[in-house]
Specification:
Oligomer: single chain
Largest sheet: 5 strands, mixed
Structural class: alpha/beta
Distance between the termini: 35 Å
Shape: elongated
Radius of gyration: 36 Å
């Protein structure tokens, strides 16, 4: 039974086992075999004295286990040895200065890695191993960091220690997704020093950060920098949304085919915008405009910064509902049978996939929304349609997008540029990037031109991102795991503890 349940006690003699005071006590001693001197290696069995050690072992049946082990202090019989006496050790059971057996220490380490201090101590207490949160953290911090070699391809990204105030940098192996190091900030010079101390990096995957670009250029000039494709698409999406916002007036009335009556707020916004920009064109300062028009200085600055008046006009306040996809059916059904009841309509659209209830349908029909034309799409919705692969758009959204593009030549041109860029990205045709940039710069689509000129600043990295199979997606995944570790410690962990958990936990996954 001892060999099966307590294999680590096979090297000692168990004198007795008793259960008292809510714990299991195992009294044992060594067998008395000769032991080699740790200095000269001479075997000796000459006893100088005895001492006892108390070791915490893995719990049994939810009860703490304490091993009271009697060890010998031996005399080295080699007269030329500088060590006269020494304490014998029991490998696998009692390490030097240890107060827990290796099995108990492994259990503490597992809980510390998974749950950190307070939560780890609570779990250990539940299973019968009583430690303070400080002891759990001390055990964790004493662990050595995993050895690692610098790979040829790395990924780098930042994460927040305290959002908006303090940030750090994570560096991973872009192929195996293993964490390599955590830097205390996100400065380019810190990243450059790390690269100089770890030569051999051939390719660096990163986002559009200029700090990491400068750090990679200074620390590893021989390495190829690869811009992340998702960030490229995200930057392009932001440019398309700005363009859709600027041309919102072209498609805001496509639902009815005629102009809508604008409210007093919209008319006031338009008149203010025209007056402010007229004075700006005459060289009048913002302070003077505020005095002449009796407006606040911040209001004048807001109007002056807006390139288009549509950017200052709010969209429709009426949101989409679950009934909207069945608007055309309800309209035609009520036209064919004016006396049809709401309950009959509810049953019919339920069979067609309607997920809402009767109250929503009553309110929808009572407000006359079944007879209204659909509200014009928001600029963000139009931008999302343009950025979506046409094969993944539903027939209804394809139709509405085409209506928008028929109303605005600029958005139609932007859509062509977006789809060409998507082909470059999905088909890895980075060699066509210069032609795409030239086409965009030749047009008059200001947000897209700004995006294209930004690509020129980071040209080589963008070409690599559109050509090579690597991306910064694995690094973003590691950042998400780091967020979980931070939440487990309520965001109060210092960088040293957080770094230790990152390297020891995420490196093993």
């Amino acid at each position: 039974m001892v060999t099966v349940l307590f294999p680590h006690l096979a090297a000692v003699e168990i004198e007795r086992v008793d259960r008292q005071d809510g714990q299991i006590r195992v009294v044992a001693c060594t067998r008395g075999d000769p032991v080699c001197c740790p200095s000269c290696g001479t075997a000796t069995g000459k006893v100088h004295g005895y001492h006892r050690r108390r070791l915490a072992d893995r719990p049994v049946d939810g009860l703490p286990v304490v091993i009271e082990l009697r060890l010998r202090r031996l005399v080295c019989i080699n007269l030329d040895c500088a060590r006269q006496t020494f304490h014998e050790q029991v490998p696998g059971l009692a390490g030097r200065y240890g107060r827990r057996t290796p099995g108990a220490t492994a259990l503490v380490i597992a809980c510390a890695l998974a749950l950190a201090g307070r939560a780890g101590a609570s779990l250990l207490a539940t299973i019968g191993l009583l430690l303070s949160r400080t002891s759990v953290l001390s055990t964790l911090m004493a662990l050595p960091e995993p050895p690692s070699t610098v790979p040829a391809v790395i990924g780098v990204d930042d994460f927040a220690i305290k959002r908006g105030q303090r940030y750090a940098t994570i560096i991973i192996d872009a192929v195996t997704h293993r964490c390599l190091d955590v830097l205390p900030d996100r400065l380019g010079v810190t990243f450059a020093h790390w690269l100089q101390a770890h030569p051999g990096v051939q390719l660096i995957c990163r986002d559009r950060s200029t700090a990491y670009a400068a750090g990679a250029r200074d620390g590893a000039p021989q390495a190829v920098q690869c811009a992340d494709r998702w960030h490229l698409l995200n930057n392009l999406s932001e440019a398309v949304e700005k363009l859709a916002l600027a041309h919102r007036g072209c498609f805001r009335d496509i639902a009815t085919g005629q102009g809508r009556d604008e409210g007093p707020t919209v008319r006031r916004t338009r008149s203010r915008y025209a007056a402010i920009h007229a004075l700006l064109g005459q060289g009048v300062t913002n302070n003077e405009i505020a005095r002449r028009l009796h407006l606040a200085l911040n209001t004048v600055k807001k109007y002056a910064r807006a390139p288009h008046v549509e950017q200052l006009i709010g969209g429709s306040k009426r949101g989409a509902t679950l009934v909207d996809p069945f608007r055309d059916y309800l309209r035609s059904r009520r036209a064919a049978e004016p006396g049809v009841t709401v309950w009959a309509l509810l049953r019919e659209i339920k069979s067609m996939g309607y997920q809402g209830g009767s109250t929503l349908l009553y309110r929808y029909l009572g407000q006359g929304r079944a007879e209204d034309a659909p509200a014009p799409p928001s600029p963000r919705r139009v931008a999302s349609w343009i950025m979506t692969d046409p094969a993944h758009l539903s027939p209804g959204r394809t139709t509405r997008l085409q209506e928008v593009l028929d109303c605005c030549l600029e958005l139609k041109q932007a859509t062509e540029h977006v789809r060409t860029f998507a082909d470059l990205l999905t088909q890895r045709q980075g060699h066509r990037l210069d032609d795409w940039i030239a086409d965009v710069r030749a047009g008059d689509l200001h947000p897209l031109r700004s995006f294209a000129e930004g690509l020129l600043i980071d040209h080589d990295a963008v070409v690599a991102g559109l050509t090579l199979p690597y991306s910064n997606g694995p690094t973003e995944g590691v950042v998400n795991k780091i967020k979980l570790l931070k939440r487990q410690m309520y965001g109060r962990a210092g960088l040293a503890l957080l770094r230790k958990r990152i390297l020891l936990t995420i490196a093993r996954n």
